[in-house]
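We emphasize that the prediction below concerns an isolated chain of 81 residues; any contacts that depend on oligomerization or on bound cofactors are therefore not represented. The input was used exactly as deposited, without trimming of termini.
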Amino acid sequence: DLLTTFYDESVPLKDVERLLDGVLSNLRRLCAAGPVIVGAQEPRAIVEERWSLLEQLQIAADSSWMLRPMISNNVEQPPLL
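Result of the prediction step, given as a token string:
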């Protein structure tokens, strides 16, 4: 997950955004040589002000997909043995 360390609340948001800009520049450089796949998760609720980081990453990407777990109404407990 690329953004996990950027969600750290002990680092000021301004510094995090500056560092992310550098990472995005390096990703653009890597993309010149071939496809690059990056994984990132949504920030937890306690760091909602960091949502802009995920948005910046999505804007910089040529394409993005949001994967969510399938919700099933029929949850079965598998047997232990």
